[in-house]
């Protein structure tokens, strides 16, 4: 059996079309233009390219976007003042501070300073707490994207044995929480693995769904999975460069071998990646509606 490929590029495209319509309606019926600000500190090339992709996507959907770039030696106080400025800005509904921040800035202090109503990354403890309680909130973008990939592909999560590898605050922990909620895309039985897990292969072998968010190229191999497994590969690992100097990417899963046993699998690139930015846009539109009181 060769797996059905879940194309994040295609699913993201469909969601972006829905968002475009929503943004047009917001403008026509309520005179609201959703606004997003991205704040970047320093000149890290990967962060620069992420921020530029976010602004480009916002623009394409009709979302107003502002890009603030601060010098690498910006003080924590100055960054807090910038966040506060946008907390008060009526034209901005979503604030995204690009991580990681330079070492002299306390990331937690910055994330806690963002108005939870504008926290479109879903990292503020108010939103994290609401997510755990199953209340309406901004869901973190990558886990939200994974849920959309599963549900839109018709993958049944209710009663499924889900093995998640990686327990970071941005992927592993939140996706574990979301998939055990009593709702669509949830009701799964969760096993969360990490570096202290004994016998990773034994856990993976009994999984109906594996979500790999590790950062180790091709760590999940075909002998670790059962026939018919659904595989979501979150990992983005740079494993070399093409002759033209372009990065060669690999996921955390040995795609070519695992796809021969899986029923569904996401590729890298073109799987989870395109979903993350799309869910940021969805959160920005949601923020604009909530702030304006539009249902
Ligand atoms: P992270 O914060 O570095 O966390 C990695 C997790 O994997 C940790 O919990 C770590 O365990 C676990 N781990 C590492 N090596 C392991 C091993 N050999 N065996 C078992 N567990 C191991 O990473 P992250 O931010 O969650 O990102 C994970 C991957 O997803 C990265 O490749 C990243 O680039 C990618 N990513 C992609 C997107 C996207 O939009 N496509 C978004 C976010 C992240 P411990 O906790 O025990 O250290």
Automatic annotation (TrEMBL):
Limits of the Tetrahydrofolate dehydrogenase/cyclohydrolase NAD(P)-binding domain: 140-290
| EC number(s) reported in the record | 1.5.1.5, 3.5.4.9
Assigned GO CC terms = cytosol
The UniProt catalytic activity note for this protein reads: (6R)-5,10-methenyltetrahydrofolate + H2O = (6R)-10-formyltetrahydrofolate + H(+); (6R)-5,10-methylene-5,6,7,8-tetrahydrofolate + NADP(+) = (6R)-5,10-methenyltetrahydrofolate + NADPH
- InterPro entries given in the database record: Aminoacid_DH-like_N_sf, NAD(P)-bd_dom_sf, THF_DH/CycHdrlase, THF_DH/CycHdrlase_cat_dom, THF_DH/CycHdrlase_CS, THF_DH/CycHdrlase_NAD-bd_dom
Query: Which CDD domains did the record assign?
Result: NAD_bind_m-THF_DH_Cyclohyd
- What GO MF annotations does this protein's record show? methenyltetrahydrofolate cyclohydrolase activity; methylenetetrahydrofolate dehydrogenase (NADP+) activity
Question: Hey, which pathway is this one from?
Answer: One-carbon metabolism; tetrahydrofolate interconversion
Question: What are the Tetrahydrofolate dehydrogenase/cyclohydrolase catalytic domain coordinates in residue numbering?
Answer: 6-121
Function description? Catalyzes the oxidation of 5,10-methylenetetrahydrofolate to 5,10-methenyltetrahydrofolate and then the hydrolysis of 5,10-methenyltetrahydrofolate to 10-formyltetrahydrofolate.
Checking NCBIfam families in the record gives:
PRK14186.1
Q: How does it assemble?
A: Homodimer.
Identify this protein by name.
Answer: Bifunctional protein FolD
The scientific name of the source species is Thiovibrio frasassiensis
């Amino acid at each position: 059996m060769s797996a059905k490929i879940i194309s994040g590029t295609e699913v993201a495209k469909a969601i972006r079309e829905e968002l475009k319509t929503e943004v047009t309606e917001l403008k026509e019926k309520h005179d609201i233009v959703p606004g997003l600000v991205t704040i970047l500190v320093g000149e890290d090339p990967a962060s620069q390219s992420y921020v530029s992709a976010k602004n480009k996507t916002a623009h394409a959907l009709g979302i107003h976007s502002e890009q603030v770039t601060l010098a690498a030696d910006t003080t924590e106080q100055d960054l807090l003042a910038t966040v506060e400025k946008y907390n008060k800005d009526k034209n901005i509904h979503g604030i995204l501070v690009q991580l990681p921040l330079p070492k002299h800035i306390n990331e937690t202090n910055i994330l806690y300073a963002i108005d939870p109503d504008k926290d479109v990354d879903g990292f503020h403890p108010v939103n994290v707490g609401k997510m755990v309680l199953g209340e309406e909130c901004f869901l973190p973008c990558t886990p939200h994207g994974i849920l959309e990939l599963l549900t839109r592909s018709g993958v049944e999560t209710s009663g499924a044995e889900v093995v998640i590898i990686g327990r970071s605050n941005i992927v592993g922990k939140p996706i574990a929480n979301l998939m055990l909620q009593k709702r669509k895309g949830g009701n799964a039985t969760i096993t969360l693995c990490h570096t202290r897990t004994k016998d990773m292969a034994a856990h993976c072998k009994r999984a109906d769904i594996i979500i790999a968010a590790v950062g180790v190229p091709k760590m999940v191999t075909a002998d670790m999975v059962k026939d018919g497994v659904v595989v979501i590969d979150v990992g983005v690992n740079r494993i070399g460069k093409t002759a033209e100097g372009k990065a060669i990417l690999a996921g955390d899963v040995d795609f070519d071998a695992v796809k021969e046993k899986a029923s569904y699998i996401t590729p890298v690139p073109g799987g989870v990646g395109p979903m993350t930015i799309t869910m940021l846009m969805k959160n920005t539109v949601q923020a604009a509606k909530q702030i304006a009181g539009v249902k």
